């Protein structure tokens, strides 16, 4: 059986991608940002997920204003990087997982979430930047297949936080009904507070961002009640991207272990937030029961190793 082992929240600031692509990661301004993801890359290298579901928003790369699906699931075999105006980013083409994606589409749509099925799509910085931050800069291939889930947060009305959270739960149900043993991680990307135009351009609200991260771990249901207008007022017009983190959070247990957090201001004109959440450790009884499940021995030992290492990271994590 497939299962979601962890959720990752990460900003997807385009300037981070430009810094990577132009060899600026060692410059002091950018080193401050990239150093916050070093432990995360170690965590990911140890977790070795079989598939990553990446929730992100398209920035008029794959979808123009002529067509904006609320939720669009990438079911293709591959997803090339988009040309966002200065040529495609020099990152490998992302391989998809069409079988799992089709299974998720069927399960979620039959659960009454009306996804758009996308069989051909280029992906922009919203997806590729978090991939770099967690997987580094591979030259030839990413270490695991990716299932993109594009969410409309660019044209009113975006989905509510509650809708996103419930979609996360439906995705989890779908993953857990897939028969192959797969360890899946799910990304929620975007944000945190920022506004790129208008009289409030440059707005950053660190206090609100940190409270969001606190509640993401401890009380996500509280976040599901935040109306759009509050995101706009407190986190800026583009802060609405944060609803996408609630899809990731909905796919996890109610109680999670926060194994790592990083927050810095600014990167470009954006607050950068990052978090790694694992499903809480099971009791001894639950572990024993889990041992009788169809999950393979290799998968179990790998998960145990991930948890052990994650707690080591947690003790050193940045807040
Ligand atoms: Fe964005």
Helix content: 25-40%
What structural class results from the helix and strand content? Answer: alpha/beta
Beta-strand content? 15-25%
Number of strands: 10
Main sheet record: 8 strands, mixed
Helical run tally:
12
- Quaternary structure type: single chain
Question: Uncertain runs with pLDDT below 50, 5 residues or more?
Answer: 289-301, 314-319
Encode the helix/strand succession as letters. EHHHEEEEHEHEHEHHHHEEHH
Shape: globular
The rounded Rg comes to 18 Å
Tell me, rounded to a whole number, the average pLDDT: 91
How do the strands line up in the largest sheet? 6-3-7-2-8-1-10-9
Span of the ends, CA to CA: 34 Å
Could you characterize what this model shows?
Helix content is 39%, strand content 19%. The protein is built from twelve helices and ten strands. The protein has helices spanning 14-21, 28-34, 38-47, 98-110, 125-135, 161-176, 206-218, 220-224, 228-235, 245-250, 284-291, 297-316, and strands at residues 3-10, 51-56, 71-74, 78-79, 94-95, 116-118, 146-151, 183-189, 256-267, 270-279. A hairpin with a 2-residue loop joins strand 9 and strand 10. Helix 4 crosses helix 6 (161-176). Mean pLDDT is 91; it is low at 289-301 and 314-319. The site of fe (ii) ion has 6 residues, from loops.
Can you lay out the helices and strands and say which pair or pack?
Blueprint: E1 3-10, H1 14-21, H2 28-34, H3 38-47, E2 51-56, E3 71-74, E4 78-79, E5 94-95, H4 98-110, E6 116-118, H5 125-135, E7 146-151, H6 161-176, E8 183-189, H7 206-218, H8 220-224, H9 228-235, H10 245-250, E9 256-267, E10 270-279, H11 284-291, H12 297-316
Parallel strand pairs: 1-8, 2-7, 2-8, 3-6
Antiparallel strand pairs: 1-10, 3-7, 4-5, 9-10
Helix pairs in contact: 1-5, 3-12, 4-6
The structure holds fe (ii) ion (FE2).
Fe (ii) ion is lined by residues 12, 57, 59, 126, 190, 241.
């Amino acid at each position: 059986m497939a299962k979601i082992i962890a959720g990752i929240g990460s900003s997807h600031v385009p300037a981070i991608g430009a810094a990577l692509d132009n060899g600026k990661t060692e410059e002091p301004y950018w080193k401050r940002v990239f150093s916050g993801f070093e432990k995360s890359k170690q965590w990911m290298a140890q977790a070795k997920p079989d598939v990553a579901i990446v929730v992100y928003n398209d920035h008029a790369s794959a979808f123009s204003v002529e067509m904006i699906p609320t939720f669009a699931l990438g079911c293709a075999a591959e997803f090339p990087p988009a040309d966002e105006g200065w040529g495609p980013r020099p990152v490998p083409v992302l391989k998809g997982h069409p079988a799992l994606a089709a299974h998720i589409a069927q399960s979620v749509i039959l659960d009454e979430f009306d996804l758009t099925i996308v069989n051909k799509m280029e992906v922009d910085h919203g997806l590729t930047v978090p991939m770099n931050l967690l997987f580094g800069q591979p030259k030839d291939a990413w270490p695991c297949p990716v299932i993109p889930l594009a969410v409309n947060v660019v044209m009113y009305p975006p989905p509510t936080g509650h809708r996103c959270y419930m979609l996360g739960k439906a995705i989890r149900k779908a993953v857990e009904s897939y028969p192959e043993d797969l360890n899946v991680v799910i990304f929620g990307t975007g944000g945190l507070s920022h506004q790129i135009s208008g009289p409030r351009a440059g707005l950053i609200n660190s206090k609100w961002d940190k409270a969001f991260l606190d509640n993401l771990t401890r009380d996500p249901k509280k976040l599901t009640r935040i109306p759009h207008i509050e995101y706009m007022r407190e986190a800026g017009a583009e802060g609405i991207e944060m609803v996408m983190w609630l899809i990731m959070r909905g796919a996890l247990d109610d109680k999670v272990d926060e194994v790592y957090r990083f927050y810095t201001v600014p990167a470009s004109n954006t607050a950068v937030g990052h978090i790694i959440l694992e499903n809480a450790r099971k009791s001894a009884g639950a572990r024993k029961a889990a041992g009788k499940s169809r999950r393979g021995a290799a998968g179990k030992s790998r998960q145990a190793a991930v948890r052990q290492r994650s707690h080591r990271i947690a003790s050193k994590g940045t807040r």
